[in-house]
Amino acid sequence: MRNRRRRPGAHTVALGVVAAGAMLVAAACSSSSASGSGGSSSGTINGAGSTFAAPMYQQWAGQYHQSVNSKVQINYQAIGSGGGIAEFTQGVVDFGATDAPMSSTEQSAAQAGQGSVVLHIPMIIGAVAIIYNEPAIKHLVLDGQALANIWLGKITKWNDPAIKKLNPGVALPSAAIQPVERADSSGTSYAFTSYLSQISPAWASQVGTSKSPSWPVGTGATGSSGVAAAVQQTAGSIGYVELGYAVQGHIPYASLVNASGKAVAPSTASTEAAAANAKYPTDVTMLTFSLNNSSASAAYPLVTPTYILIAQKPKDQAKAKALKAWLTWALRPTQQQETPKLGYAPLPAKLVSLDLAALKTVH
């Protein structure tokens, strides 16, 4: 994980895992059939990375151990996508998790470290919600240009004319806007900055797309739970997290104007609309794609897949067998239909088929 360069005026606060994240992680386990569980595969499997996907991975890990295969213990640490890529590359964990596809440099390093081609297996699709703490605003509409200008420091007040135009008839306060962003290397930041780069030429040229961008303004917090906590604790603040953190934390979130000009709130349905309209790769060794700014009229415009990183030719065959069994189980309709409970959307059937084909190449 590289060090972040901060511009003058930006600062960072250290925030641990707090109630908003804890509520998500503590989801109840549901019963599942042992069919397709991988038989006698056993052992401890360690993974790390995405905080965006952590609630689902941790729930699936607990369910699988309790009701499918008690011989398999899956441990997952939510340390951010950049950390997950780094630990997987170094062989510290058996699988990585990232919302941002590995760069060509990261892929080369991971393949050298693993001694194998590394696969991206998209396991979850979710919306990045724009959360805010301004009690005077009950319903907020924003667009990509306004978001870019907030984080560029060009929009500094809630009653800025650009926000007024998007919210006719709403009495907007003159309070200052306090942006909050991820301080760690984050796939959620990658999705967010990728979207801003698509919408705003100024953002694309001045900041760009990155897991660890040099934020022009704002306060940094560690992990999705840290951003959620910072927004909850800071009057006038705005931030970005996976939708489940907003729902479980009872944090207000904005609707965004999509490519069709419609203001759409993040939800399972609007996330599914983006996923249904996407074109997916046919090469199962590189299943990476963007769901941002979908042309579907019902789609929320800020949606991301999140990936499991796994070696195609793993060094430990026993662990690989157990990991494949868990991932195959998680791709079943029963498990995919649980994703909305934590703010995600089920994978489209065509993407599940591609995932299963990719897992069959692991040997």
Write a short abstract of this structure.
This protein is an alpha/beta fold and 363 residues long. It is 36% helix and 18% strand. It folds into two domains: 17-28 and 35-125 and 305-360, Periplasmic binding protein-like II (D-Maltodextrin-Binding Protein, domain 2, 3-Layer(aba) Sandwich), CATH 3.40.190; 128-272, D-Maltodextrin-Binding Protein, domain 2 (3-Layer(aba) Sandwich), CATH 3.40.190.10.
Q: How large is the share of residues in beta strands? A: 15-25%
CATH architecture of the largest domain: 3-Layer(aba) Sandwich
Q: Share of helix among residues?
A: 25-40%
* Overall pLDDT level: 90
**Secondary structure tally, helices:** 14
| Global structural class | alpha/beta
Unreliable stretches covering 5 or more consecutive residues: 1-40
The CATH first-level class of the largest domain comes to: Alpha Beta
Shape: elongated
What are the salient characteristics of this protein?
363 residues; alpha/beta; D-Maltodextrin-Binding Protein, domain 2; 2 domains; 10-stranded mixed beta sheet; 3-stranded mixed beta sheet; 14 helices; disordered N terminus
